[in-house]
Specification:
It contains 6 helices and no strands. It is an all-alpha fold. It starts with a helix and ends in a 10-residue tail after the last helix.
């Protein structure tokens, strides 16, 4: 708990990057094996779900601090932060600022202005 959503997410992304460095080939192979091994797939899925759920307090704290809009889907928010980590690990594009770039992109979005409310 760094006290801010951005700080918590940067810490999370840095941790995930550190966890994944050097394991690109193993993780890719494991992912492919789960397509053919249902038991392995269930174990991997349960592990992923536990790890993702453990990240929910980051978003809960941010909601309580008023840093997120009400009704945010924690799973989608997590996808927007963790998905690029996997992409950069697989494509060997993990520069020293990767965590900051990923989090800022997810939090700021890509539009030039704030879109109208829906």
């Amino acid at each position: 708990d760094t006290g801010t959503l951005r700080g918590d997410l940067v810490a999370l992304v840095r941790q995930r990057i550190d966890d994944l460095r050097g394991r690109r080939q193993t993780l890719g192979e494991l992912g492919l094996q789960t397509r053919h091994d249902q038991e392995l797939g269930r174990v991997v899925q349960a592990t992923i779900e536990r790890r993702r759920h453990a990240c929910h307090p980051i978003f809960e704290r941010a909601l309580a601090r008023g840093e997120l809009r009400a009704g945010i889907d924690f799973e989608v928010a997590l996808d927007l932060v963790i998905g690029p980590v996997w992409s950069r690990v697989i494509s060997h594009r993990l520069g020293p600022k990767a965590a900051d770039e990923i989090v800022d992109g997810a939090l700021d979005g890509f539009g030039a202005t704030t879109p109208p409310s829906r």
